[in-house]
Amino acid sequence: MIPRRRFLQAVSFTTGAVAAGAVALPAASALPAAAATAAREPKGTITDLGPASVASPLGNAEFVGDVLYLGSRGLAPNVVGAWDLSQDKVTAHHEIPTGVGIWAMCKVGTDVYVGTHTRSDLYKIDTLTGVTTLLAQYPDPYIWTMASSPDGKVFMGTSQPGRVLEYDPATGATRDLGQPAPGEAYVRSIQADDTHVYAGVGTNAHLIAIDRRTGEKRELLPAEVADRDWVSSMSVSGTHIAGGMNSLAELLVLPKADPAAYRVVKATAPGEKYIVSVLIHDGWVYFAGRPSGTFYRHHLASGAYEVLGVPFPEAATVRLLEHGGRIYGIQDLGVFVYDPSTGATDYVSHVQKGFRAAPEEPMSVHCDGERVYVGGKGGCDIHDLATREVTRLTIAGEPKTIMNVGDTTYLGVYTQAALYSHHAGDPAAKLLFRTGQSQDRPKDLVHDRLTGLIVMSTQPEPGHQNGALDVYDPRTGRLDTYRPVVERQTVFSLTARLGTVYLGTSTQEGLGAPPVTTTARLAAFDLRDRRVRWEVEPVPGAKAVTSLKHTALALYGITDTGVLFEFDPLRREVTRTLKVCDRGGDLVLSGRYAYTSDEDAVYEIDLVRLTSRPLVAGLASDWFGGGSRVNIDPSGRALYALKGRDLIRIAI
């Protein structure tokens, strides 16, 4: 864990390790002071605690000459930073004012093309003049991937649905090449040569060759691997196509002249699931895996396979590029540089070179009474409430849900549906387990005091069915995973009381998989005999129960439509409902009141009268994914939420 100012300054990287110092956080005496301050403030008083999470995550990159153009994601605005290798520093930033991130980049001559997501806009950076121009806007939520052809066309793969677009820089016209695999939601990788566009598709894997002249489509994916989830990364040469497949971490290599003479190369790092980037260069296919972060290569002529090392443990490599005979790997935390002539790998912090760090869209917020954890890309910013010092806890992934049991903080981390633990002052978090079971996204965490067990709910990987429930015993380290737990749904929210975990579900299974059920459920899972005791549908038409809490007498839940329901677990029936807002988020309780939020406001709910009112409004909170989060101080005297991208305390 490092001070945020040091995270944003010079950090020295070496192969496989990060040199960073630990910072001691204040002792428990800070809690009474912070609580007393909140107690003196009128209800609804907002205290701005500064940027919630400051980061510089990378989404893609492209070389033009000796300049590496690095695209950010999750910043506002996003930027493309120009790292001039000859000067060894970032010499310019080109702002991309729309979209929440840059996943896609390519070049045509000296122009760099940038594709954004949510919304999907196409930009051009003229690297000679420094001028950035918005060229086109598309209705698709994501531009995932881009590539240029030898004759200077720009091809884009989008979702949802997954389709292929061709942009002609000479005319400014866009041609829709349609869905390469009708019914599939994602085109996640794309490449082009003189005659064809190659599209890698998920959530059911396809590798489609599209004739650029006629539009005719041909499936190239061999029957042997037709049951895979994705072709999520790709590279082409004059002779070969190489595609990275999920979720068994395989590289598919096909000769263009004879696709039937393909090879499937399995990445061998323990637990490897994804091939996240691929590059064909100098007779080798270089590729990077996840979750291990391992870097590999495969020789096209001989079939030789090599593990080249782990440049940064568990990091995702979003792009592989070649320049000057070296291989550059683009990751959230920086860039690794592999020299094939020596076998040496160096790691470079792009922030150290001058790349802009800025407030990102946070994903989670949690207060332990003395400090607030704000989860984002690549870890958490930890705000000390007494000193206002902010430190950075680096984790390879995205903390989606956080809770405390005593002095231990638990973090549910995407991808791999992993659970970490952390103690204040420790320099790093400890990995406790990865769920497996085709799960990737933690949804909620809860601790049952009677049994001492920790329960985490997870959403399946894109396209997969049935969420899971993880039951973890911190005393023994035993993990039991139940999938399915509520058939054909994901468990979205949890609360635990006296050996029973109550489950609020979502009809959405893996992303990209159309729901097969119509209404979210409420269920009771017995931690002693590990059985679902009952299920009900508490609110007709609700697609998700986004949060659950309980008192001694009742359960309280809020749905995606902003409807609060009160439920009697003895009679197993809804006793009252209240429309609070248009979109449900987190729900927290303090005495006779509950609190929830949407992007603009935090609402106070009187649980006795079952009435609600906006406590604070005008927040324009900018959470990742369009949701809304709110967390409560253990003292019950303050809430923590966002105003814009700033962390705020709200006195209650």
UniProtKB/TrEMBL annotation:
<dbReference type="InterPro" id="IPR011047">
    <property type="entry name" value="Quinoprotein_ADH-like_sf"/>
</dbReference>
<dbReference type="InterPro" id="IPR006311">
    <property type="entry name" value="TAT_signal"/>
</dbReference>
<feature type="signal peptide">
    <location>
        <begin position="1"/>
        <end position="35"/>
    </location>
</feature>
<dbReference type="InterPro" id="IPR015943">
    <property type="entry name" value="WD40/YVTN_repeat-like_dom_sf"/>
</dbReference>
<protein>
    <recommendedName>
        <fullName>PQQ-binding-like beta-propeller repeat protein</fullName>
    </recommendedName>
</protein>
<keyword id="KW-0732">Signal</keyword>
